[in-house]
Amino acid sequence: MVLVMVPGLGFLYSGLARRKSALSLIWACMFSASVITFQWYFWGYSLAFSQYATNGFIGDLQKFGLMKTLGAPSPGSPLIPDLLYAFYQMQFCSVTAAIVVGAVAERGRLIPMMVFIFCWATIVYCPVACWVWNINGWAFKWGVLDYAGGGPVEIVSGMSALAYSMILGRRQEKMMLNFRPHNVSLITLGTVLLWFGWLGFNGGSAFGANLRATVACWNSNLTAMFAAFTWVLLDWRLARKWSMVGWCSGCISGLVAATPASGFIPPWASVILGIVTGVVCNFATKIKFWIKIDDALDVFAEHGVAGMVGLLFNGLFGAGYIIGLDGVNTGLFPGGWIKHNWKQLYIQFAYIVACTAYAFVVSALLAFIINKIPGLHLRASEEAELLGMDDDQLGEFAYDYVEVRRDYLAWTPAKNDPIGTEHAIPQGDRHGISQHSQMLEGKAPSEGSEYGHAHTGIAGDRHAMAMGSEREKA
């Protein structure tokens, strides 16, 4: 179930982007899963969950290449073998990496991002996962409540994406005018896949078919639906229209907030969590304009901020009897503020600050260093951004590319334009449509060109249909 979240994120990001960069985001999400599978097998699991290291910050390499990882009880639960737990946690890391790759949207090169993902998983994700989920981690010993990854999954992904976007730079301003998602159906499909996978993400973190897993699933749905409801109402007050994108955004932010909290708080608190998350994350989408960082897909607002809200709710509404429903962790936690455990909120807040600062600073430094390595510059060229990441990075497209002509004409100066042609793209046949020089002059593919009827495809078919229609009229 968890693994379906990776293509779900790909479809979500693809729908949110322009059509000319749609496939590149699906590719980035899927290929990042390949990178993480190798990293987790190679040393990621050992760095995050090896019980032999006692420094409280990061594990050692005792389980390098899954050595000593077979049928022994896992760090997460004595009911689950170590090898199965390693596979489950690999999917968590894969999902987190797929969230982060949204930072490359519409202007980032893919291979440097994959290099970043491998290094990021090693020095950012694995340490934070060790803090809170390894029995020797400092946050685990301190009593931090993080059920399914508010810190290592949500805050880390949100802050890392924000840091990468900062180093990558903003998209061209003129290309951002009148920007809107190109395919709301894909956004909805991606959201539904994420919703389905999240039930395995949160419900499965109880490590058994028990009442705590059931409560976690209920809490996840309640938080998601009330957050979606709240987000849609907030969007309606501005546009006086109902927004499907708003529903999807609210649903995702609610699922994110439920990630750290669904296994700790009662269902009635999840309703409050959903409403608060919908309000906070909706307004958090404005932060990127204040700080002038082009977080194109709102990863920071919907993951980083929502993860913080969920962690704080653990400090307020955490209940010991919810934890004990798994039959293993009975009587270990006195509860949050509502149970007069006043210090829990401070512990949660300190953990949030630590995760936020560490993820942002280290991710920014890592992206900055990779950007300075010859051949690994993060940003695609201005011409490539105009053409689209699908063509520049992949050479394949999510849709028939006849629409490229519209974008060329909209954003490329005319041939004799006094403004100049500094943004022009070299001439050449672009996938059977027409030469760039003809596009600049507004000619159809067949006007004075050897490319006219020699090529097949939609452009030529439309021309032939138009000619046939004229003959019929005559």
Automatic annotation (TrEMBL):
<feature type="transmembrane region" description="Helical">
    <location>
        <begin position="181"/>
        <end position="201"/>
    </location>
</feature>
<feature type="transmembrane region" description="Helical">
    <location>
        <begin position="305"/>
        <end position="325"/>
    </location>
</feature>
<keyword id="KW-1133">Transmembrane helix</keyword>
<dbReference type="InterPro" id="IPR024041">
    <property type="entry name" value="NH4_transpt_AmtB-like_dom"/>
</dbReference>
<keyword id="KW-0812">Transmembrane</keyword>
<feature type="transmembrane region" description="Helical">
    <location>
        <begin position="213"/>
        <end position="234"/>
    </location>
</feature>
<feature type="transmembrane region" description="Helical">
    <location>
        <begin position="21"/>
        <end position="42"/>
    </location>
</feature>
<feature type="transmembrane region" description="Helical">
    <location>
        <begin position="111"/>
        <end position="135"/>
    </location>
</feature>
<feature type="domain" description="Ammonium transporter AmtB-like">
    <location>
        <begin position="2"/>
        <end position="399"/>
    </location>
</feature>
<dbReference type="GO" id="GO:0008519">
    <property type="term" value="F:ammonium channel activity"/>
</dbReference>
<keyword id="KW-0813">Transport</keyword>
<dbReference type="InterPro" id="IPR029020">
    <property type="entry name" value="Ammonium/urea_transptr"/>
</dbReference>
<dbReference type="GO" id="GO:0005886">
    <property type="term" value="C:plasma membrane"/>
</dbReference>
<dbReference type="InterPro" id="IPR018047">
    <property type="entry name" value="Ammonium_transpt_CS"/>
</dbReference>
<feature type="transmembrane region" description="Helical">
    <location>
        <begin position="265"/>
        <end position="284"/>
    </location>
</feature>
<feature type="transmembrane region" description="Helical">
    <location>
        <begin position="147"/>
        <end position="169"/>
    </location>
</feature>
<feature type="transmembrane region" description="Helical">
    <location>
        <begin position="241"/>
        <end position="259"/>
    </location>
</feature>
<feature type="transmembrane region" description="Helical">
    <location>
        <begin position="345"/>
        <end position="370"/>
    </location>
</feature>
<keyword id="KW-0924">Ammonia transport</keyword>
<feature type="transmembrane region" description="Helical">
    <location>
        <begin position="83"/>
        <end position="104"/>
    </location>
</feature>
<keyword id="KW-0472">Membrane</keyword>
<dbReference type="Pfam" id="PF00909">
    <property type="entry name" value="Ammonium_transp"/>
</dbReference>
<protein>
    <recommendedName>
        <fullName>Ammonium transporter</fullName>
    </recommendedName>
</protein>
<comment type="similarity">
    <text>Belongs to the ammonia transporter channel (TC 1.A.11.2) family.</text>
</comment>
<dbReference type="InterPro" id="IPR001905">
    <property type="entry name" value="Ammonium_transpt"/>
</dbReference>
<feature type="region of interest" description="Disordered">
    <location>
        <begin position="420"/>
        <end position="455"/>
    </location>
</feature>
